[in-house]
Amino acid sequence: MSIWTALSGLAYSHTYVDVNGIRTRTVQAGPAEGEHVVFLHGTSGHLEAFVRNLPAHAQHYRCHAIDMLGHGYTAKPDYPYEIPRYVEHLLGYLDVAGVDRAHLVGESLGGWVACWLASEYPERVASLQLLCMGGTKVNPTVMARLKMSTTAAVTQADRRLTRDRLRLLWAQWDEELGEDLTSVRYAIYHEPEFGKNLHNLLALQEVETRERNLLRPDRMARVAAPTLVVWGKANPFGEIPEATAIAEAIPGARLEIFPNTGHWPQHEQAERYNALSLSFLAEVVSQR
Predict the structure, then answer these.
(1) Which residues contact 250 (CB under 8 A, 6 or more apart)?
(2) List of residues 6+ apart from 57 with CB closer than 8 A
(3) 3-286 in CATH: which number?
(4) What letters, b where the CB count within 10 A reaches 16 and e where it falls short, cover 63-81?
(5) What is the spatial distance between Cα 151 and Cα 197, in angstroms, rounded to a whole number?
(6) Long-range own/partner contacts, residues 155-160 (CB < 8 A, 24 or more apart)
(7) Each residue of 101-132: pLDDT tens digit?
(8) In the chain, where the domains are located
């Protein structure tokens, strides 16, 4: 399977929109009248993280996958990318796309941004899915691993380093699609603007910066949206007690643990995740 075969049965648009002066890459699919589902990737990632999820979700919902601020092929303004900046960019995207209220699906950094937005702007969030969400702890060992592996892959013209960075996310490497994603990520990492602004993208891997951006329990307690927390049992960036603490901090949140799964549950266990997500979304919609 490749990215193209994963999307081969899907009618979608791949375009760029202006979000407050930031050229933002987006893929949109699904019925125009459907409720909006917005997919948000992790640190140094890009919208291709959801190629295994868009076709199933677009049968029922208007789907958006974006390259977040400073990521992928979205523009890279020269300032540190802290959570309020990501939230501002995401809100701007929702406004430009004409989305008053969205179901937010965030993986890792994307979950951090989605959860923060939900705590500040509850009227904009219909539901939350937090997939191996980061941002609740300061773990210098994990932060250093992410920072070093990303920096090596970006600064050295060695495709193997990009592959190694991607493999960190998976408990079980998918050779065919993994190599396709490696090619996409290698091209992104070696765009001149990406390397130039890498320090801005990795700002949250610095202890002092991360501290002031943490998702603390009092903030998570303000989340009013129905919330699904999904975690990989083999997640290399956070153990199950972290997931349990997140689910306990958010009122009414539901926790699902995927066995034999790393940091990309929506990708490694796509069939299982898609069924869970669609069931959760249908339940949220039916209870209004």
Answers:
(1) 115, 128, 220, 221, 223, 227, 229
(2) 30, 37, 63, 274, 277, 278
(3) 3.40.50.1820
(4) bbbbbbbbbbbbbbeeebb
(5) 11
(6) 155/195, 155/198, 157/190, 159/183, 159/186
(7) 999 999 999 999 999 999 999 999 999 999 99
(8) 3-286
Q: Is the pLDDT of residue 1 over 80?
A: no
C-beta separation of 8 from 35 below 8 A: no
Which residues make Cβ contacts (< 8 Å) with residue 143, sequence separation at least 6? 205, 206, 207, 210
pLDDT of residue 267: 95
Q: Answer whether 257's CB lies under 8 Å from 243's CB.
A: yes
pLDDT digits 0-9 by tens, 45-73: 999 999 999 999 999 999 999 999 999 99
